[in-house]
Specification:
Blueprint: H1 14-24, E1 29-31, H2 38-43, H3 50-55, H4 59-67, H5 82-92, H6 100-113, H7 124-135, H8 142-148, E2 151-155, H9 165-171, E3 178-180, H10 186-189, H11 194-208, H12 215-231, E4 236-241, H13 251-262, H14 269-290, E5 293-298, E6 300-301, H15 306-312, E7 320-321, H16 327-339, E8 346-350, H17 356-362, E9 375-377, H18 387-400, H19 420-438, H20 447-465
Parallel strand pairs: 1-2, 2-3, 4-5, 5-8, 8-9
Antiparallel strand pairs: 6-7
Helix pairs in contact: 1-19, 1-20, 11-12, 13-14, 17-18
Amino acid sequence: MKEFINEDFLLQNETAKMLYHNHAKKMPIIDYHCHLSPKMIADDYQFKSITELWLGGDHYKWRAMRANGVDEKFITGKESSDWEKFYKWAETVPYTLRNPLYHWTHLELKTCFGISETLNPDSAKRIYDRCNELLQQPEFSARGLMKRYNVELVCTTDDPVDSLEYHKAIAGSGFEIRVLPAWRPDKAMNISTSAAYREYMKKLSEASGINICKFDDMIDALKARQDFFAENGCKLADHGMDFIPSSDYTKQEIDDIFDKIYGGTELTKEEKLKYQTAMLKILSEMNAEAGWTQQYHYGPIRNTNSIMMGKLGPDTGFDTIGDYSCAEAFVKIFDELNSKGKLAKTIIYNIDPAANDMVASMIGNYQDGSVPGKMQFGAGWWFNDQMGGMLRQMNSLSEQGLLSRFVGMLTDSRSFLSYPRHEYFRRILCNMLGCDVESGLLPEAEMERIKGMVEDICYYNAKRYLNF
């Protein structure tokens, strides 16, 4: 029987195999957006078990386990052992057939641990013991895993109040992989409650050394922290939003709204929308002035299960695809920024695949010839980072723009075992192009250009675009 994860996995013809093995496979990884812990990298953390490494914070797996009828105590509960949790995942894996988790699970077992056996209840103990045995070895530490996957550079996701002490420690340690911070000022923009916002302003004031009493003080504090991030290698900003805010406002209204929430009064829905709109524009202008690339992640409805939100908190697997209409809002903000000469290089990630063509066409409105692919349609994100989602995103970009200028894949993950997602993407990319060549949609006479296109999308485009 043919091995499941074999060297030609997902590669359906000879052209696809050539493109992957001779071109995509050898490219280093630039993971320009992830949620890895800088502390773990600085400490070169040694994982206690495959359960900690695999299931510790992976809400993709948690969702699948819940759907398979697994009790929460075996998912996020503290009373269950690592083995019990791993076994429940092993029971779930056979039921993930046709879910990307089935591919990712076995890619990770093969590429990291050399295990070709499929995971199920019968193989669970053998695989658990072998993984745990290997994880005790130094080369399977946090840094060891990054080196194993030929990672060249990663950008973490960091709040403006972060001290960046671990990034500094990594930079001074001689570690050959660059670990840079990325600016994520969501807490300054996305207001929850007045008490939480006031507490965050206190932290921002302490970090910046600026006494925050009014709105302009807060902006000055953010600018001071942005300078600090830039001094520590930051070149990327990231903004996470449910939707793209768009509301008319005056400067006086924003000053008054800040005073209101800073004083402990909750805002109306319309006041929040005005404030978020103003903050997104100001932060985007700051990105342009700093010469940074900005990323917009938008579209999810987060933390939809109020019971589980109360028990576990946010980011635990209870989010969904939103169906917001944001085209007019994009036009409004991009046109204003562009008119001011303050539209930074921008990557847009949408979570609703129904909006793919809208985003792919939107970026074409603001390409200005200054940089190839200045406006980017980001890789399939969250609920779209599987085969179908990747293909839908690349097909929309191909039809509406220039796939050749695409900056490629990222993990967007908290796991040190997520790097095979780059391999997964590269295999899908090469198979798509290989099928196009062999079906006559792309000419064999342009093969050298197609080979270069693969290498660009996998590595060189991101390296050039992000000034790495």
